[in-house]
Each structure stands twice: as structure tokens, then as C-alpha cells.
Design goal:
218 residues; seven-stranded mixed beta barrel; four-stranded antiparallel β-sheet; alpha+beta; elongated
Amino acid sequence: MQRARCYLLGETAVVLELEPPVTLASQKRIWRLVQRAMTIPDVVDVIPGMNNVTVVLRDPQGNALDSIERLQRWWEESEALEPDPRLIEIPVIYGKEDGPDLPHVASHCGLSEKQVVELHASVDYQVWFLGFQPGFPYLGSLPAQLATPRHAEPRLSVPAGSVGIGGEQTGIYPLPTPGGWQLIGRTPLALFDPHSAEPVLLRPGDTVRFVPQKEGIC
């Protein structure tokens, strides 16, 4: 079992943070911990991250120490949460104006652009957690050959739907925003719709499959 430490974050929250490495097995236990923490009446919100979880408290002065002890104990007791299986196919137009960094990723990886697209779309990814923006999925299982560092200087504007690579992960920008990931394609799907009954398309634990579209490089 990975060791964990708990600490206060600001004046309203406590954090449980795991030692490296980052693994899917640990993320599944974090999902279970989130589910359990949400049952506590004094908890306002629970925010899962990569190898960590943040718990926002209603009365931090009275509950912080108790919450730290409880989180630590629950982590030691926790089991993996196996979510209901959902496979979400994401259509992607790769390259050109929709994926302006595809040539750079190909050069960095020693592959052709076509090989990058084929490799990126060849595996099923799992949503490890949502963050950065509403509905932004951090996806695990990017083929190691495609790992590419983020831009040293982020773009001022990344279009909604952009599919990018950031280090050893891939993800999708739900909304226009500044961002530093390497953009290799774009999807027309809306990942976040505030007017929908279920505003966020993806959930932690979902399986994502990228489907190249004919308009792109493929």
C-alpha cells in the first residue's frame, strides 16, 4: 500500500496526498475515498486529484484534526472502486489547424504524423480525474512513445475540444482557455454544457476511445 500524508490546506480544507508512483489502482481507491467522504455532513466538497484528494470542510476549526485522522484511517481501510463501465467514443480531427502541434510531437517522438495518430487512437484510455476546467479529463494509459513535454510558454488561447498531450498524459480542453499542452487534434463533442441536466460528459472511471475522422490527417 502506498503511504499517505494528510495536512491542512489554507483555512477550509484538508488534503490526503500519496507518495509516488501514480497508479490506476491507487486512483480507484481514491474514488472510493471520495465516495465515502461525501457522506460526512460536515463536508462541503471532495475534490479528487492525481494521487491526492482534497476535502473542504464546513467548520474547519472544529473538524480539521478529526478529519485528518479520519482520512488517514479511511485510506488504510479503503478498497478499489470499480465504476459502472462506460465506453465513450470521442471523434477527433487530427493535425493541420485542429492539431497544430502534431508535427512537433511526431518529430520529438521520432515518428511520422500518421504513426502518432494511429498510436494515439490505438488504446483505450481511462479517466483518472477531472480538473483544471469543468469536465477536463486527465486520461491514463498514453503510450509511452508519445510522451512529450508541455510548451515552455503556454498559448494564450486553446480552442474548446482540443486534444492535447502533456508529458505522460493526454486530455481534452472543454472550454477555450490558455494552455500549454501539445495540441494534436480537436473533437466537435461538447465536454461541458452548463445548461444540460448532466453538464459534464465524462466521469472518473470512464473508458475513452479516440476515433480519427476523415477530415484530418488520416
